[in-house]
Design goal:
The structure holds 2 protein chains of 2 kinds. By secondary structure, chain A is α+β, with helices and mostly antiparallel strands. Chain A contains 45 helices and 51 strands. In chain A, helix 10 crosses helix 12. The longest helix of chain A is centred in the middle third of the chain and has 97 residues. By secondary structure, chain B is of the alpha/beta class. In chain B, 40% of the residues are buried. The longest helix of chain B has 13 residues. Chain B contains 5 helices and 8 strands. In chain B, the strands form 2 sheets. A 5-stranded parallel beta sheet of chain B has the order 3-2-4-5-6, sandwiched between helices. A 3-stranded antiparallel beta sheet of chain B has the order 1-8-7, with helices on one face. The chains are: A alpha+beta, B alpha/beta. Chains A and B meet through helix 39 and helix 40 of A and helix 1 of B.
């Protein structure tokens, strides 16, 4: 490859600047960001030293080379760097600069040293290139490059390093910065963009530092997108971004980015399209099924842990919602909820693509989209729609779809699970880190993170720990302090949540402080001096005083045990702590004596500190101290006693020292091994990142390919359609060329014939055997122009060319048309030959035939009138022979006046040259013959040239003129007749289809003169649609000779109004019986029809009214003969039509004899006086039924006023009559009742008021102060008041009894004997006092109310006893059955009742005696009468044979017998 | 013109209570007159027959009575009586029909019961020949002019 570069570049083109790039973990991403922004043509070469695993086959060259146009090559030994080439150091090699060349050397033997070593490279680079050396430190752990940085700066070069924010690992950049030798700190993209400025000499680094990011095209696009969509794509992967931009550029057909940026600046719609392009919405249900199978278990755990509490899930980058719905289904299944409503699940599904969100909200998916959804889920969670499925509303309600920018908007809080799949692959590492921080902040402690297939939390392992790394499922690592999202801090504050959040944080802090204090106390109790270590053996916390155990070295503070603690504690701790953490078992070290104070002992105890399920295990190292209490004298004594023991101790001490040394060596080796392992780990991590990046890239490409594939499918379909259309067009073209009768050639620009019609092969004499012949092979007949010349002219000018060929044999037009593409480019020409020769010959022959046979005289004359040619008709007209005619002078055939006139016409034609056509002249020949002729004169040629010819045509129109005169006369007559009849005439020429409408018809149709089309279709269209079928049928029948054409129908006027016309028509048939014409007239009968309709309607109404009112009518003539009789009249009379009477006298027989005279008088009165009459009379029907009718008659008169009849209407008013009679009865009854009521009220008021008034007066007297009365008088007054009160009460009781009579009382069979016995029982005291005798015979059993008859007999017997003036009253009661009822008679021997009072006594309050004499209310007999009336009976009073009064009661059987 | 004080008034009435109350009332109102009670037509006719030829008689007749109505009594009396008998109805009824029938029968007045000073004052208003005169001892006489 290097040789290729050398070949391409001229010798001596050595890069002026050598730019060394050092990178380690996270360097790949940074490196790609840098190289993408490198300037295209600068005098600099780039040498990359990227830490890599020694055995790993690096793909770095390919990966880098994929993104950019610069050459990327692997470094080979001894290569001289060329400008604008990127050199990649291969694995397991160090690179140095030596003698103006790059050299590859074996890496350091130090196992811990990274390969290639950046320090080594930079040191040699600085030394070799001096001020032309530039070093760049990118992401990486460790401190490699820091020493090299200082070396380059010392040599006068420039040092740049990646900023911390964008660096995935900041170890190397920070170490470099700590040297104080870094000139510029930027993001990789900025470094790339700023290099041209950096390379300029003299270098103004300060200005460079202050300058903003160079706005190259991509950056400008990012800015435009941000300003329009509020979405910042700055941290999106540059390659992805650029690819999408390139797609848009291809769509817009622009080649450079600058052009595209210009378009984007001026076209907001383009920004929208680019934005849409960048949103790669690729998703599906249960995407990656294995991952989904794995997540089910974790979701089940979440559901179980929440125990019915609200579960909050965040699906970031939800696109069209399938992911969110898939998770919702999994949660629903895990919860095994009876119904979705009870499932407490809230899913926030977010995206920045509003259109995708709209799709997601609708929840409608096609059949194809449902492939991955299990059938049972479809049945359970989806509703079927015509073309797919709709997510059930209950499931949709669990998900809130909303716009949310994951990198800008505040994250959701207290989330149990986040699903963010295949979104992070589009982000740069820096943005990925920020997003992970946000996710960490958003999730509850231990919350679940579900990532895409190519995504991992490699850069944020401190925030997440793997749950199932292969399936990309992670747990959030709980940490004491969550870092709020950076940008969220200056976003719109989230008041409510922030309040709650800060409260929770406050509580947590308090809890933490409390826990910390407890922990401190515990540690203090175990041993005051202790340290807390994490798994990396970093000191997290120190307890007590560590002066004795720790040392602080100069330089940066390092909290590692390895550097901070003193020996031998360091070794013990380093050796034991990993085991303690791993096994979670305590460790107790050996006791050690202090060098200074041998009795001061120290032991290291290490305890595992398990902070919980999701926390790393820490180790608490306690330095337990104590003083040995053994006195020294004892030791001395022992020494004295056991010198052997002392020796052994000494030996053991020596052995221990040796062991310690060995151990120390082992520890050091282990450290070295560790460092080596760490370096190896870094290299592996770098390789892993490389692979991860490749994987991400592949996934991104895969998604883009999916998107592209869809587009390609669409394009393919379009192409197929186009191909199909093209095929059809080709077939059409072939068919045209095969069948067209015109010679046609299509030639290309090289005048090669590409297409030719079949006939052209013959016409141009082209051999069909030659494929694509040149146009020069065409053979044209004489007289034709040069085809090639005319073709070249047409193609040169771009305009059509024509040539007319007129020879003896040929008459043709040769046309050449340039063949243009849609863009206007000339790609050839088309040759067309329109050959008229045959047509011309044919026309000539036809003309000769016409000339010979036309029934008109056609002559060709010269300017003097000499006849040059003449047909037979000319000779006939001129009364000559054809031979004599030719050569004779035309004018000589006429008399003088005609000749003069004809010469005048002749001269006028010669003078003006204007043709004279159709001029009619009366010609008089010399022979005296006179005719009317229609003359036409046309001249050709020129008199000066001597070729002037006059064509003359004469036609005898004498008969035609006479016919015309007759026709005109007839037309005048017809017009007058038409005008008089108000009818329009129409004439239909059936052969031509033309229709004539007369002005009258146009007037009827309200059509202007030129408004009628004149075709039969126009005429048909004017017929009302409802009548059209009938009209056509009538017309066709007439044309077929079946019937006359006489029809009434509607026409639609031009103003849309329908008019009724009466049309008559007559067809004309030819000799074959074919109708050739039809003439007719249409008369507007709209008004007539309206009148007829009105009359018909009125008649209908009248008949309806007659039917409804039961009114009959009949008419008689003055002689009494019945003219007409309506069916209703017959119905009233009760006879059928056949039984009707034709004579008045016989009709009179129907009238009731009592009314007949009156009826006759009324009829006679009407006939005599001519006035109307009204009378009511009874009719006796044949069945004997009497009906009453009301008759009204009116004489009818003839136009002279003579009475010609009587029109009589009569109405059956029987029902009315009966009702009126009934009403009269009711009125009378009501009057009587009213009178009774009046009387009742009167007597009530009078007789009741009287005792009241008496009581009132007497009471007033008693209470009056000036009333002088003694006790006796007062007592009397009081007594009288009491009497009146009793009387009033008796009246009220009687009235109540009276009023109750009307009440409905149940009737039954009663034995009147028993009733009378009971009555006598009641009256027994009075009977006894009066010594009365009461006799009664056998009384009947009747049907009635017992109380009624008790009242009757009690009142009557009581009255007899009360009013009797005998010492021994006698009372007799008898009963007698009559035909229609029972008669009861009660008699006494009392004073009797005067005859005049025998009726009056039954009235209310009627008394015959003064109250002072006999006490009574005057209601007793009224009550008796009212009861009797209730039974529809009668009561009367008469003189008794016993000497007193007799009351006779009759009760009808129908009432009292059941 | 002679003016004399009436010593008696006649009251044809079937109710003893009415007569009893009227008497007590006239006494209480110091009407210096004697109330002559007739329970029926026979008694009243006897009194008419017994009346001196030039004496003027003032009679109050009840309207509703068992055997003969007040209007009938007036009608029967007036056929034969002259100006010296002034008769009218004294009734508890206020029915306009009763009043009309009474005047049609020939009654000179129609007053409402009880028969006391108020009724007599109303009679005096109806009959121009009659008037009341109050005496020094606060008693009241009925004066008739002839």
């Amino acid at each position: 490859m290097d040789s290729a570069v050398n070949k391409r570049k001229p010798k001596g083109a050595i890069a002026k600047f050598w730019i060394g790039i050092g990178a380690s973990a996270g360097g790949l991403e940074a490196l790609r960001g840098l190289v993408r922004n490198l300037p295209p043509n600068v005098p600099a070469a780039y040498i990359v030293a990227q830490h890599m695993a020694p055995q790993h086959k690096s793909m770095l060259t390919e990966i880098i080379g994929r993104d950019i146009s610069l050459k990327v090559v692997d470094v080979t030994d001894n290569v001289v760097p060329r400008p604008n080439v990127i050199y990649i150091t291969p694995p397991n090699r160090n690179i140095i600069v030596d003698g103006g060349k790059l050299r590859l050397v074996d890496p350091s033997r130090e196992p811990a040293a990274p390969k290639p070593s950046v320090d080594t490279f930079f040191k040699t680079l600085g030394a070799e290139k001096g001020k032309y050396s530039i070093g760049i430190i990118l992401s990486g752990t460790g401190s490699d490059g820091a020493i090299g940085t200082a070396a380059i700066r010392a040599a006068g070069g420039v040092m740049i390093c990646q900023d911390e924010l964008t660096a995935k690992y900041s170890g190397m950049p920070v170490s470099a910065m700590e040297t104080g030798c870094i000139d510029l700190v930027m993001s990789p993209e900025e470094i790339g963009a700023q290099l041209p400025k950096i390379l300029k000499m003299p270098r103004d680094l300060d200005a460079l530092r202050a300058s903003p990011l160079s706005l190259d095209g991509t950056a400008e696009l990012v800015g435009l997108l941000l300003s329009r969509t509020k979405v910042n794509f700055l941290h999106y992967k540059t390659a992805t971004f650029q690819r999408r931009v390139e797609r848009r550029m291809a769509s817009r057909r622009v080649e450079t980015l600058d052009e595209y940026v210009e378009i984007a600046k001026n076209t907001p719609e383009e920004i929208d399209l680019l934005f849409k392009e960048l949103l790669i919405s690729v998703t599906s249900f249960f995407r990656d099924p294995h991952e989904f199978d794995s997540i089910r278990g974790y979701i089940a755990k979440i559901v179980k842990a929440k125990k019915g509490e609200q579960i909050r899930v965040w699906v970031a980058g939800s696109a069209t919602g399938q992911e969110a719905y898939s998770l919702a289904m999994v949660f629903a299944e895990a919860a095994q909820a009876k119904d979705l409503e009870s499932l407490r699940l809230q899913i926030f599904a977010t995206d920045i693509d509003m259109k995708a969100i709209e799709v997601a909200r609708r929840g409608f998916y096609s059949h194809a989209a449902m492939e991955q959804v299990p059938t049972e889920y479809i049945q359970k969670y989806f509703d079927r729609a015509p073309t797919g499925y709709i997510v059930k509303k209950s499931l949709r309600e669990k998900i809130v779809f909303s716009y949310h920018n994951i990198s800008q908007d505040p994250p959701f809080l207290n989330i149990d699970m986040i699903s963010c799949r295949n979104l992070l692959i589009y982000f740069q590492a820096s943005l990925q880190a920020e997003v992970f921080a946000r996710f960490h902040y958003s999730l509850v402690p231990g919350g679940l993170l579900f990532l895409g297939k190519a995504e991992a939390v490699t850069a944020s392992e401190q925030l997440f720990r793997p749950a199932d790394k292969e399936k990309h499922i992670f747990f959030q690592r709980p940490s004491g302090e969550k870092r709020p999202p950076r940008e969220a801090l200056y976003q719109t504050p989230f008041n409510v949540q922030r309040g709650e959040s800060s409260k929770i944080v406050e509580n947590r802090k308090l809890e933490l402080i409390a826990a910390t204090k407890k922990f401190d106390s515990l540690v203090n109790a175990i041993g005051p001096n202790a340290i807390l270590l994490n798994a990396d053996l970093n000191i997290v916390r120190v307890f007590g005083n560590m002066d004795r155990y720790a040392k602080l070295a100069a330089g940066a503070v390092d909290t590692r045990v390895a550097t901070l603690l003193r020996d031998p504690y360091r070794q013990d701790i380093q050796a034991a702590t990993p085991g303690v953490i791993r096994k979670k078992q305590n460790y107790h070290g050996i006791a050690r004596s202090d060098k200074a104070d041998c009795r001061r002992m120290t032991r290291i105890n290490i305890y595992p500190v398990d902070a919980g399920e999701n926390q790393d295990v820490h180790a608490l190292v306690v330095f337990a101290e104590w003083h040995e209490t053994l006195p020294s004298k004892d030791i001395d004594a022992k020494d004295q006693v056991a010198p052997e023991l002392a020796r052994q101790i000494s030996e053991l001490g020596n052995e221990l020292a040796t062991t310690k040394e060995n151990l120390q060596q082992t520890v050091e080796e282990l450290e070295t091994s560790n460092e080596e392992m760490q370096a190896l780990n870094e290299e592996l991590q770098s390789s892993n990142e490389e692979l991860q990046s490749t994987n991400e890239e592949l996934e991104t490409s895969n998604e883009e390919l999916q998107s592209t594939n869809e587009e390609l499918s669409t394009v393919n379909e379009e192409l197929q359609v186009n191909a199909q259309q093209l095929n059809v067009v080709n077939q059409s073209l072939s068919s045209i060329l095969e069948n067209i009768s015109i010679p046609l050639l299509v030639v290309d620009r090289g005048l090669v014939i590409t297409n030719a019609s079949k006939v052209s092969e013959t016409y141009f004499k082209i051999s069909p055997d030659i494929a694509l012949p040149h146009v020069s092979r065409c053979r044209l007949r004489p007289g034709f122009p040069d085809l090639m010349e005319i073709l070249e002219k047409a193609m040169m000018t771009g305009s059509p060319c024509e040539a007319y060929v007129e020879t003896e044999e040929d008459n043709a037009i040769l046309s050449v048309v340039p063949h243009l593409t849609s863009s206007g480019e000339i790609i050839g020409a088309i040759v067309l030959i329109n050959d008229n020769t045959a047509a011309l010959t044919s026309t000539r022959n036809e003309l000769q035939l016409i000339f010979d046979n036309v029934p008109a005289a056609i002559m060709v004359r010269d300017q003097n009138g000499t006849i040059l040619r003449a047909n037979r008709m000319s000779a006939s007209l001129l009364e000559s022979t054809p031979e004599q005619t030719v050569g004779s002078n035309f004018f000589d055939y006429f008399d003088e006046p005609t000749r003069t006139e004809m010469k005048g016409d002749h001269q006028a034609l010669l003078t003006t040259g204007l043709p004279q056509v159709g001029v009619q002249r009366k010609l008089r020949f010399k022979s005296g013959k006179e005719i009317w002729a229609q003359k036409s004169l046309i001249s050709t040629g020129d008199a000066k040239r001597g070729d002037l010819k006059i064509y003359s045509m004469l036609q005898d129109v004498t008969e035609a003129r006479e016919d015309q005169a007759r026709i005109a006369e007839n037309e005048v007559r017809l017009a007058q007749a038409t005008k008089a009849s108000k009818a329009g005439v129409w004439d239909w020429n059936i052969v031509s289809g033309e229709v004539y409408w007369s002005p009258e018809l146009m007037e009827i149709m309200k059509i202007p003169e030129d408004g009628f089309g004149g075709a039969i279709e126009d005429g048909v269209a004017s017929v009302h649609p409802d009548d059209l079928e009938r009209v056509i049928s009538a017309r066709d029948d007439h044309l077929a000779g079946k019937c006359d054409y006489n029809i009434q129908h509607r026409l639609m006027r031009s103003d849309g109004v329908a008019v009724w016309v009466h049309s008559y028509g007559q067809a004309i048939w030819d000799e074959n019986g074919t109708a050739i014409r039809m003439v007719g007239a249409s008369r507007d009968i709209t008004e007539e029809r309206e009148i007829q309709n009105s009359v018909a309607v009125q008649k209908d109404h009248l008949e309806l009214a007659i039917a409804l009112s039961s009114v009959g009518h009949w008419e008689i003539d003055p002689e009494g003969k019945i003219i007409s009789c309506s069916s209703e009249a017959l119905k009233i009379l009760g006879v059928s039509e056949k039984d009707g009477h034709s004579e008045l006298e016989s009709a009179y027989l129907f009238y009731h004899p009592d009314d007949l005279k009156r009826v006759k008088l009324s009829v006679r009165y009407a006939i005599k006086t001519g006035r109307r009459f009204t009378c009511e009379a009874r009719l006796v029907r044949s069945d004997g039924e009497v009906r009453k009718v009301k008759s009204s008659g009116m004489p009818t008169r003839d136009p002279e006023g003579n009475i010609v009849g009587i029109f009589i209407v009569f109405q059956d008013i029987t029902e009315i009559w009966l009702r009126e009679e009934e009403l009269a009865k009711s009125v009378a009854e009501l009057g009587r009742s009213n009178e009774e009521l009046n009387r009742f009220s009167y007597v009530c008021s009078h007789d009741m008021k009287e005792p009241v008034r008496m009581i009132e007066s007497m009471t007033e007297l008693l209470t009056s102060e000036d009333f002088e009365a003694d006790d006796k008088l007062r007592a009397e007054l009081i007594g009288r008041i009491g009497n009146n009160t009793a009387r009033l009460r008796a009246i009220i009781d009687s009235l109540l009894a009276y009023s109750r009579i009307d009440a409905k009382i149940t009737r039954d069979h009663i034995d009147l004997n028993d009733v009378v016995h009971d009555v006598l029982g009641v009256l027994s005291l009075a009977v006894k006092e009066r010594k009365a005798t009461v006799k009664f015979g056998k009384l009947p059993k009747i049907y009635g109310a017992r109380v009624h008859f008790m009242q009757i007999f009690q009142n009557l017997i009581g009255n007899s006893l009360k009013y009797s003036d005998k010492d021994e009253p006698l009372i007799e009661l008898t009963a007698e059955k009559s035909k229609d009822g029972w008669t009861f008679r009660l008699e006494d021997n009392g004073p009797g009742i005067p005859e005049k009072s025998r009726t009056e006594i039954f009235q209310l309050f009627s008394r015959l005696e003064r109250r002072d004499e006999i006490d009574g209310t005057g209601l007793g007999l009224s009550i008796v009468q009212k009861i009797v009336l209730q039974y529809h009976g009668k009561i009367s009073c008469e003189a008794s044979e016993l000497g007193g009064a007799a009351f006779v009661i009759w009760l009808p059987s129908k009432e009292v017998e059941r | 013109m002679n003016e004399v004080s009436l010593s008696d008034i006649h009251f044809v009435e079937d109710s003893n209570d009415e007569v009893f109350v009227s008497r007590l009332l006239l006494k209480k109102q110091r009407i210096g007159i004697n109330l002559v009670h007739h329970s029926g037509m026979s008694s009243f006719r006897a009194a008419l027959d017994a009346k001196p030829a030039d004496a003027i008689m003032l009679a109050f007749v009840d309207l509703n009575m068992p055997a003969m109505k007040g209007t009938e009594i007036i009608a029967s009396i007036l056929d034969k009586a002259k100006d010296d008998v002034i008769m009218g109805i004294c009734s508890g009824s206020e029915d306009p029909e009763d009043i009309r029938l009474s005047f049609n029968a020939g009654a000179s007045f129609f007053v409402n019961k009880p028969l006391g000073r108020q009724a007599i004052e109303n009679v005096c208003k109806s009959v121009s020949r009659l008037s009341l005169r109050e005496n020094a001892d606060e008693s009241v006489d009925i004066i008739v002019r002839s």
